[in-house]
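Q: Got a minute? One more chain.
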Amino acid sequence: MRVVYRGLTAVAGVAAVAVALAVVLPTGPDEVAAGPVTAPPAAPPSSGPAPTPAASLTETPPSTAPSAAVSGAAERPVPSPGATLAPGYTAMEALYADPRVPKLTRGVKRMALRSPGKRVVKDERSGLAVPKLGRPWKVSGAAPFTTKQVLPKRRGTSLRGVFVTCPLPIMEQESPRDTALLAARWTLNHHPKGAKISWLASQPIKDGWMLVFRAKYGKHTSRAAVAVVDGGMSKPGLAFVTVPDSQRKQWRDIGRVVSGVRVLG
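A: Always. Here it is, folded:
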C-alpha cells in the first residue's frame, strides 16, 4: 500500500506542475502571458514642414497638455506657416508667429496717391467702388469673388495679374491696420507656394487702410496690394491686386488701385 500511495502522490505532483505551466507560459510563439493593460504613449505634436494654406496643426494630447493658467502662452503650439489660426492663439498672435510675414515697422514708407479716375466697377456686396483698369486689363467672371479684372494669360506660365474685390474674408480687428495685415497674409493663399512678403508701403486711406508689398517665391516676385475699407456693410470690403514680374509693365496700375478704392455712394 505504501508503494501505491507514493506512486499516486508523485503523479499528483507532476499534474500540478503541468497545470501551473499551462497558466503561466504562452501557448504559442505569437502569444504573451496575460498582464495589466497600459495605454500606448501619446504621439508628440506634429512639427512637419510648411503645409498648404488650409493646413491645420496637431494639438498637444490632452494627457500632456499644460494648463494655460500655469504655463502661459509661451508653451502653446507655434503656428505653422500657412495656418490660418493655431490652437490657443488669437488671429494677430498667429500672424506675428508666421515667418512669411515680417513685422510692419515705422520704417515702411507711405506712397503718393493719385487722384481717382472716373471709370469704376461697383461692388454692391462690399459697398465699394474701385477703378476700372484700362487695357490690357479686362473684366472677368468674378467667382468666388464679387468683382474681378485680369490681365491676359502669357504663354509658358499660369500666373497673370488679377484685381478682385469681396467682403472681408478674414476676421476683422479693432484696428484697420491690423485687419489689413491679416488680409495681406490671407492673400498668400493666392500666390505661388512658398511666397513670402516684404513691405513696400503702408498708410491709412479714407475709411480704411492700405498695404503695398512684394510677394517673393523662388526666383520670381509679384507686386501686390490690399485695401480694407468700411463700405457700410456688415463686413468691411477688401480690394486685392497682384501682378507677377512677367507682367511688370502693369506694376504701375497697383498705385491706381489703392488710390481709387472708395465707398460706393
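A: Strands lie at 120-123, 128-131, 138-139, 147-150, 162-167, 196-205, 208-217, 220-229, 237-244, 262-263.
Q: Perfect, thanks.
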